[in-house]
Design brief:
Elements: H1 3-19, E1 32-40, H2 47-67, E2 71-79, H3 84-96, E3 100-105, H4 109-122, E4 125-128, E5 149-151, H5 156-168, E6 174-180, H6 184-198, E7 203-210, H7 219-228, E8 232-236, H8 239-251, E9 257-260, H9 267-273, E10 281-284, H10 289-292, H11 295-305, H12 314-329, H13 335-344, E11 347-348, E12 354-355, E13 370-375, E14 378-384
Parallel strand pairs: 1-2, 1-3, 3-4, 4-5, 6-7, 6-8, 8-9, 9-10
Antiparallel strand pairs: 10-13, 11-12, 13-14
Helix pairs in contact: 1-11, 2-11, 2-12, 3-4, 5-6, 8-9, 12-13
Amino acid sequence: MNKKIISGLAIAASAALTFGVVATSPANAATKTVTLAFQGPLTGGAAQAGQDELAGAKYALAVYNAKNPAIKIKLVEKDDKGSGSEAAVVAPSVASDKSIIGVIGSAYSGASANSFPSYKATGLTMISPSASRYSLTVQGSPDSGYPVFHRVLPNDKVQGPALARYATKDIKDAQVYLVDDQSPYGAGLASFTKSALAALTGVKLVGEDHVLAPATDYSSTSAKVKNSKATVVIYAGYDQDAGIFVKSLRDAGYKGIFASGDGSATQTFIDQAGAAAEDARLTEGDNPFQNFATAAQLAAFTAASGVKVPGGYVTNTINAFNAFAKCISGGSTTRSGIARCVANGTFDRIEGGTFSFLRQGDMKGTPPVGAFIIKKGVLTYVSNA
């Protein structure tokens, strides 16, 4: 038998033991099943982020199905590669599948925006764990996701100031060089970060650059950074290019702080940068699952997902799934029912507390942004930024 099949059976068996799942019998054969889709990058260069989140969805699914025999949930995986163009192809097929009553995702802002036309047309509700572009929830914006889009993380108008504060924390007379990847996400985050830097005492912006991603050569920008005498470099963009850039900076002799936002907060960044990632400061609108999970929960997470160490945005993904699950267990099993429930409901955070959504899709209140640092090749949570 194929080793992957054997491994998959082992994981399934382990999950069954962990959660007390039993085989279907005539007594429970009438159990109703509804379907949610997970949409994100599952292959390609951005796959790490999607696979991390999918692991969280699998865990939440296993917990729910073990506890709710009346209405089961089936999870289908939709790979948009984190790409807007791919999402424009994936979303119509998801929207046309009448069995799908909600979407966890997309993980990326561009992919979310390009999914909106299909999901708006069919009333398919989305809850994203990680799409942070500010304009997605701005009334009247060309890429607004209202009324179908919701997210369980702070947007970049919140993350930008947090990144500015954390990048320059405890740096006397910080001289900052700001670089973005020219993507809608990166340019937006850079704009909010720049505004926040201007308001910080003892902080000076000494230079900016814009490098279209993907790129392989950052030597020109690294030289500009060195010549500027910057003590802090902030990169607004995604993990692969962040890794190439910080390695270029270190190779050029730059010794200062390197900081970036949630687009870089993945294992891909660490793998790409190697030793150059050490001490990098990163922000992410998520509280790592391992920060608060019990030993039993961590074991159950591994049994359900096959992943030993939870990655980024696992907590947010669990919360997104659980919002749908609460609606479903309460009897909302149609797209219209889910839409009403998600828009008006109050939901439990797995890390404690509750959340609900504003009309345009953001969470009520100001969700915290986490501050992380790379230590010995591991993304380590420090505090709220």
